[in-house]
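Reopening closed ticket. The problem is back. First fold of the pair:
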Amino acid sequence: MYDFSKQISSFHNQHVRLSNDQRADMKRRRETNLDRIEKGLEELEKPAFKETINQGGYAQKTMTQAPESDQESRYDIDLGIVFDQDDAKGPRTTRDWVRQAIARKATNMKNDPVTKKKCVRVVYADGYQCDFPVFRRRWTDAGWRYELSSGDEWVASDPAAMNQWIEREVYWKSPETSGSYQLRRVIRFGKFFSKTHAKRLNRSFPGGLVATALFIECYAADDGRDDRSFRETLRNLSLRSKYTPVYANGDQVSDDKDTDRIGRLIDQAKDSVKELDKLDADDTTDSDANKIWKTVFRHSLFDDASKNAANSSSAPLETKSALGGAGLAAPFLASKAAAALSDSEKQSRMESAVSARKESGSGGKPWAE
């Protein structure tokens, strides 16, 4: 497969992974909402919560930026609110305490907080969404046991254990030892991919824990090659049945409503693998790779890269006649014109020179694999 790993890594760092500023903003919102709930419960003369449990992509470090085509999409923050069992009332009543507490203190909300089946949801005017699942806990000989307020029932649940499971999977399955874990990046790529095509097709795709568990299940490790790892992960996903339940930490996390959503993701994976398999051709160029990855992630970064390559190839230093036979790097860097270029311009022109040499048929093909 044509090695596009550096470009895909750059895409991940710039446009997929949350920036430090975005994570800091989400942490600030988390703390603000905790303060609102604490003060609101006090004013309502309700029992205080005893602890909180970070959940979802924020806790698991798998949140992604919004797709380029959907800049208004929501950033979800999941934060469990835990009461002692002796303090909690019925599931609906206890959830409503949290809803009232937020409504009493919150501002800048798009709508009033609403009580959902498993959480209290707050949607802010700037697109952020905060979900607050409500739990009760009791002490046992084996430690704290947690139950989630779900509809009219308290259901056994252990969100912290789910976070720990994902962390273990990322640690053990990722091939790298440099302090950066490939599986977590592939999960981010997968969630970004799912959100991008859900917006493009205006259809629901799996999200949250179901999407995360699917990409863990289908993950194909490939040390140093995130581009190839993601393609092979999509291939594994494309061979899966949409009717097979999705499991995380031994628990089934999908239900009937997810079947068609998973099916759409599988179909999109099949289409993308067909495109990405074209990168196995020996005569693949950077321009080809940009076009194909553009079909996968639908991002203008790949348009810009194609334009830059085209502009560079029109410069005198990149013509085939300027290359001579073997050894294209030394004469290029030795020229006075090249010496005046910035490092980024040198790199761009060097890449174009490699492309031109490949097209001329001279030399080996280190780019093919």
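Second fold of the pair, where the issue appears:
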Amino acid sequence: MLSLILAIGLLPTSTLHAAAPPAPRTLSGELQGAPWRLDVPARWNGELVMLAHGYEPVGVPRETPMAAADSTQALLDAGYAVAQSAYSSQGWAVADAVADMERLRQHALDELTHVRHTWMLGFSMGGAVAVASLERHPQSYAGGISLCGANLPGDVLARDLLTTLAAFDYFFPKAEGLPAGGLLSSEAGALPQMALYQGIAAALATRPAESAQFATRLQVAPDALAGAISLHALVLHELAQRAGGMPAGNIGIVYSGFGDDAAFNAGVQRVQASAAGHAYVRDRLALNGALQRPLVIQFNHGDPSIVPRMQTVYPQLAARAGSASKLHVLPPAGEGHCGFSGAQVVDALKAASAH
């Protein structure tokens, strides 16, 4: 023991200090109009998480430098480096976000050394970004995780949103505080988000029975109905503006679940998709279910935004594509929309690692 103590005492000071862990670091910048940040914990495990955030309405002020997502600290505490992009555009920016995240991934690999695995993790709209990235760049990732994700091909999503707006206009025509042309009109797309929500909520209160039927059909709780409808209006009109025309149509669609379905189908407004709009959601927002890497999906209990009918879409795609073995759907956890704790986020990532 004495010889060991003497040997330690003879070590130079620089050798003793070399064992100290490196300090945590945060890097930030901008890549082709997309603000980004990269956080590396002091005790990095050699794994990189590309974290894709959810929907951000057009015009929402952005923090400079980019703020970290809520789940970042839990991932850092678990040893992961985390790279995040604010995306080069706001709104339903899935196509831009996939390109932005790929540029950031390449940049992060230049900043880091000896990355063992890279994972793609997305929340809400970012879930679609994660799934699309995994489909299009499988060689870049060990796997992916979509939490509370809008895992729908763009044309499927657009049709669902259109159904909501057409149904609202059928049940609540000429609602006070909303454009005379209803939620499907371009004037509705120009309304501020709060004014849109207030007009919808006031209209719903005037016809409780129809509102209850509507909530059942949309698979949301009655007290979440106004928020769900306003979100659908916001996203559809932003998509139409981004795509250069209405991205979905309902000519010839036979609806069900709206009470008197015969009267509903006879009276609901019919809309023709524009060629440009439909091409955008079909091609730029495509998902095909063909997975080459493991994908973990998890939802929350009682999510008013990603409801059960939406949650089944991607598993069905994966089954048709013959890649169901690559998809792992975890039991729901947490409440509401993206109501995951940091520990649950880390657990989902570990579940992907296990496959």
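Update: turned out to be a display glitch only; the data is intact. Residues 44 and 79 are 5 Å apart (CA to CA). The beta strands are 25-31, 34-40, 47-52, 81-85, 117-123, 143-147, 295-298, 327-329. Please close again.
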